[in-house]
Amino acid sequence: MAHANKPDYRTWSREALIARLDELEGQPAQSPTLPAANSPAARQPRAFDWSKHSRRRIALKVAYLGWDYYGVAAQGDQATVPTVEAKLFEALQQCRLIKGARQCRFSRCGRTDRGVSGLGQVMALDVRSAIPSDQIEAVVGGIHPLTSDDALVERARSQRLTAGGDEPLSRSAPQHLRKHWQAAAILGLTDLPAATTPWPTTALDQQELPYLRMLNRNLPADIRVLAWAPVPLGFDARFDCLWRHYKYFFSLDAHPRLDIARMRDAAQRFLGTHDFRYFCKLDPNKEVVNYQRTVLEIDITPVEPCGVAATAPWYQVDLRGSAFLWHQVRCMMSILFAVGQGLEDPSVVDWLLTVDPALGRPLYPLASELPLILYDAYYTPALAWQAHDGTNSHHALELNHRTWQTTWANLSTKAHIVQAGLGLMRQTMVPIALSTTRFDALSWEQRQALGGVPALLLLTGGGELQPMRDYQPLHQRKRLDNSSIHNERVCQRKARQDNPAMPTTVPLVGAKRKRPEPASEAN
């Protein structure tokens, strides 16, 4: 039935209808009144009560592809500077395994830089546990047998932190490295017993939270937690590590004339304990006085290419050492590449290891970060890694394998596409010596004669080549500031942060100053 007061819009003029529409549009919208719902209002999420949960210390073995990250260590704004640890902390908090990064006594084995990957990174932290508090002590005990002398441990840690080093505190050398006499003697571990028995696991560990499944479901595909291990309350992933194992991959595609024998000769000269200040980059925010590092083993071996048919052999550099300086491995690889190209003699390694404190490092480029990975870390006693959750369920391992199998297939597909493009280029006919020939049939000298290849291409790894007009030997190059000047500048900068009115006594970075007179250099 029509409303009695309803106007008859059919009789309205066009102008009146428009005015009525404007009036209605200016009024606030009214939604029809709905009947009250029978269901109660949605509940607010209850705050997580940490006091009702026990905690324990564990180690995580983490693998990550570092190409898209600004290093492993959390730093700065994660929206613009993504890091591996920031992603891990985010996942840990989403799973309610930690309250925050500052409350979990976090430590890592090694700090990898931007673009560097890790397959055996070890991280230790305190996490929520399903095991009651009164039973956690029975799982692994509270005292690390290798660090039971607290006074000795604290004194050693203090000395190494003051020296700016990253030396381990473990007290025994691995038995399988006894062929390297320096493994124990150089590290000062000869008077300490070996302890290679893994940390024990108990039936209680089978009742633990599914750490691997929980974390990997909340992590991006390029970060995987491979395993976890029970560790004592005092375990430190950095200071309890005996040695680190790095790998660096390269192929002869970029430079087919790389002399592997010369590179091996130069590499063996790194063995032992040396002052590596000419094989590192000085941190502008850190004072370092200890540049002594120990290389336990280094070797260059061929590896089988994977995914795509290789046009040249692939090699890997295996490097094991007690600890490493900032960019030390990349500096070492840069020199090895120069030796392999015949630009430097293998004896240049001996020359660079003979340090003159008055002189800084000669200027030379860093090798690419792309092929570098932190492959493994060694502890004694060995950590009892568990790649499963609960009662031997291998769901976590299957998930990790499937995730990275997808990553491999994706990258392999891209590699095949690039290879197809290269194949077309190699088949291109080019004029040479009054005739034509396929591009891939040209020698290196013929390609240079055509003008497409610079006179010198300096190999820096990762397929990168630096074009150069000529090569200047290392002993003739300009040098950076020596370590004393660097440390004084760091101290001055820190002092000026506390007292901005403090006068400048040492030129800041980038300021011109007179360099010290170079000392005589041995050939």
UniProtKB/TrEMBL annotation:
Q: Which residues form a coiled coil?
A: none
Spell out the residue ranges making up region: Disordered. Answer: 28-48, 492-523
Q: Does the keyword Isomerase apply?
A: yes
Record key words, sorted: Isomerase, tRNA processing
Glycoprotein: is it a keyword of this entry?
Answer: no
Q: Locate the Pseudouridine synthase I TruA alpha/beta domain: which residues?
A: 266-379
One MF term in the entry's GO annotations: tRNA pseudouridine(38/39) synthase activity
Highest taxon listed in the record's lineage: Eukaryota
EC code(s) of this entry: 5.4.99.45
This protein's name: Pseudouridine synthase deg1
Give the encoding gene's name.
Answer: DEG1
